Amino acid sequence: MAGRSVLVLGGGMCGVGAAWHLLQRGFDVTLVDRRGPGEETSYGNACLIQRECVEPHEFPHDIRMLARIGLGRDNSATYHWDAMPGLVRPLARYWLNSRPGRYRSIIRSYEALIRHCLSEHAPMIEAAGAEDLLARVGFKQLIPTGADFDAQTASARRLQREFSVNSVVLDADALAASEPALRVRMAGAIHWTDPWLVRDPGELVKRYAALFEREGGKIVQGDAMTLARKGASWTVGTDAGLIDASSAVIALGPWSDRLMTKLGYDYPLFIKRGYHLHYKPDVPLNTPVMDPVAGMVVVPAKRGTRVTTGAEFAKLGAPPSPRQLVGAEARARELFDLGRAVEDAPWLGNRPCTPDMLPIIGAAASHPGLWLHFGHAHQGFTLGPATGRLLAEMMNGETPYIDPRPYTPSRF
User: Fold this and answer.
1) Which end of the chain has a smaller Cβ tally under 10 Å, C or N?
2) How many CA atoms lie within 13 A of 126 on its CB side?
3) What is the pLDDT at residue 160?
4) Cα separation, 14 vs 34, whole angstroms
5) Which of 396, 407, 398, 399 is nearest to 23 (CA)?
6) How far is residue 90's CA from residue 356's CA, in Å, rounded to a whole number?
7) Is the peptide bond before 359 cis (omega within 30 degrees of 0)?
């Protein structure tokens, strides 16, 4: 199949999503990862396909919030001092892109992807036989105080008008009735009804990967950092020996930057880390619950009640820091009758972020046959099938179903 063979590097949701869509278009696809599919970044998240997330996480401009983060008084975002010198430039660009005029433009491009997340997951879920992992229940965003209630409800109604994002506003009594396990009385909540709960995100990626193999794709373990151009082909070292293909896709999430640097590119990718831990016995929740006080999500997951943290800015590979999860667990115990921890240590994962909050999708500038598919930040699990389709259409010479220009690698 000359000219139609592809190496997809990365076995997370973005890599598997791209690999499956390429396979549907007749490419001979080999998926390469150092571990099994779904065992890295896609394993740990808030267990949601987030249809409501049409506005990406912007850099705060509120001086008081920035001061709280800087002084270590806001658990939703923390940082390592030794990472800050390398973060100055990308965070400065992130801050500039979060200014109102530019941010509104970014929202339009981000929402163009998010609007397709459920419709692109749906056929893969059906074909993979993964309905048992899903609950189409949305999640509840708690509103702790009355001072925030009007602003939050107005925001929810605006998203409904502008982007057809569905929600139900719950007052204090309605919230208490819908989540009896909640021990603290809140002003209310926004119940975002569109998102899908996935009780085991890593398992969903594995089901998609198994579907990919059943339909003729190949999965091998290998070292993506050995990728090299040899004549008209791309080669990579694997447990099965050196394999080659006419094209290669880099979908390595937070590790993409290392390979791109080796190949001579300089993308302003930076890392946000996150933690989770499971607890038993389960908190009897009807939906996941997001609490803005601690920047956490509490999720009824397969392994137990999953408590996730906010964002930690750190170097890739830096030792874990327990502070954020300690704060999240303490807050979770205020809100719920949280049981004992299941794992001895929390899971730690890395999110690959760009200063303009948009993923990098498209052809590399200087290497024929090299394609990029990374930089999805917090939403790789949500967007992997949607952006995987976009990439596959571009590689196949089709008219893309979404305008690809906002995500082009050449913008950096």
Assistant:
1) N
2) 5
3) 97
4) 15
5) 396
6) 9
7) no
